[in-house]
């Protein structure tokens, strides 16, 4: 080894740190940046689902009738998802009785009777960028429990 250094001269390793840094940056830092960006995308979807469920529940709870409430809830969901800059592939708004979770939601329709309690469930599905098609999309479900006021004008 000594004869190789003598033959190459004292400046034989000059510039190798730059090459090693670039190699490490490509191998370690780029995947790390992608993982952080992917996790932030997933977290935005969770925030969007929770905010959409809360706002849809509030819009529905204060509506005078079911048709108006449904229109307000759908608009609230759309605004809440867009507010988080989520390009959703699929957004589902469903309702469930207060004792059931969002997995059983879908067949229940609230009556908006005074004192009624029900859950608003919003499921948001998005694709994580740069992942191949065979990897499933990310799905987040937000739930908000609504209790209609017992003293409603009517």
Number of strands: 3
Classify the beta-strand content into a percent band.
15-25%
Order of helices and strands: HHHEEE
Largest sheet: 3 strands, antiparallel
Number of helices: 3
Mean model confidence by pLDDT: 84
Report on the structure:
It is a single chain. By secondary structure, the chain is of the alpha+beta class. 46% of the residues lie in helices and 18% in strands. The chain is built from three helices and three strands; from the N terminus they run αααβββ. It has helices at 2-8, 16-61, 66-83, and strands at 90-97, 117-126, 138-147. It has a three-stranded antiparallel sheet, covered by helices on one side. Helix 2 (16-61) runs antiparallel to helix 3. It is rod-shaped and about 95 Å long. The model has no long low-confidence stretch (mean pLDDT 84).
Briefly characterize the structure.
Helices cover 46% and strands 18% of the residues. It is of the alpha+beta class. The termini are far apart.
Question: Mind sketching the topology for me?
Answer:
Elements: H1 2-8, H2 16-61, H3 66-83, E1 90-97, E2 117-126, E3 138-147
Antiparallel strand pairs: 1-2, 2-3
Helix pairs in contact: 2-3
């Amino acid at each position: 080894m000594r004869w190789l250094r003598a033959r190459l001269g004292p400046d034989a390793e000059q510039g190798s740190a730059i090459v090693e840094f670039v190699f490490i940056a490509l191998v370690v830092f780029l995947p790390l940046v992608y993982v952080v960006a992917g996790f932030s995308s997933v977290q935005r979807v969770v925030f969007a689902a929770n905010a959409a469920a809360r706002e849809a529940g509030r819009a529905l709870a204060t509506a005078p009738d079911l048709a108006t409430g449904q229109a307000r809830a759908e608009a609230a969901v759309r605004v809440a998802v867009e507010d988080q800059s989520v390009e959703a592939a699929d957004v589902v708004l469903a309702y469930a009785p207060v004792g059931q979770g969002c997995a059983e939601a879908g067949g229940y329709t609230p009556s908006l009777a005074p004192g009624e309690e029900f859950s608003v469930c919003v499921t948001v599905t998005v694709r994580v960028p740069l992942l191949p098609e065979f990897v499933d999309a990310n799905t987040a479900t937000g739930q908000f429990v609504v209790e209609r006021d017992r003293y409603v004008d009517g």
